[in-house]
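Researcher: Please translate sequence to structure tokens.
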Amino acid sequence: MYLMEHDGEGARMEKRDVEEAAKHLELAGIRAGDHVLDAGCASGLLTRMIATRASPGHVVGIDANAERIQMAIDRAREEGVPNVRFQQADILELPFQVGAFDVVFCRYTFEYLKDPEAALRELKRVTRVGGRVVVADLDGNGLYHYPIPEAIEQTLQRLFGALSRVGFDPFMGRKLYHLFHRVGFRRIQVEAMPHHLIAGPADEDQVENWETKLRTIRPYALKAFPSESAYDQFMSTCLAMLRAEDSLTYSVTFIVSGVC
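Model: Translation complete:
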């Protein structure tokens, strides 16, 4: 189950930081002529960026959501990107043969998976011998702020305990290196870089993004609160922290790659 599922998720994905995505792709080492899988492609923003790097190679984007796949198809058609294909698929049961791809890239998806090791084994299965799997994911997403009231910090711990029961792991980034070892990759490499790094008041786009996240997880988060109004008050306090002049908010992205 994708925790952030809502009607506007495809549009939210299109607003992702293109500069950050380009840095992640640089680390992925995708070259001209590579046949690439973008696992968890959402609206296809990253897939289209990969297509430019991999041309004349071909890129396949998969996502579990049919509406986002259609959005990805439409965007690629509008932009005239010829070397991409999109299809709805489950990352745990990919509809591809063994060794079908030179590079498999998966970004900000593992934190939502109940069985990330099984997913990583499946990504490895569809990658050729000598090819690479690259996974990027967050560590501390939504957790690291200073200053933070003790009551809010305790509430965050309860909140993420509730979300973990539906498969969300805010600490997935730090676990990727260990997972790559367990699955048997060679020449494993690790990079880390800031994702959120907000010193002082967040801009309105950042605040809007966080508000969307907090509203979307509301049905699952309510289990950690005594009432709906308590959650709404918590959400207001979090957004106020993001707007504070003296606050720091940050999280880290780990990018881990291994050779099959």
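Researcher: Any highlights?
Model: The domain at 9-259 is CATH 3.40.50.150 (Rossmann fold).
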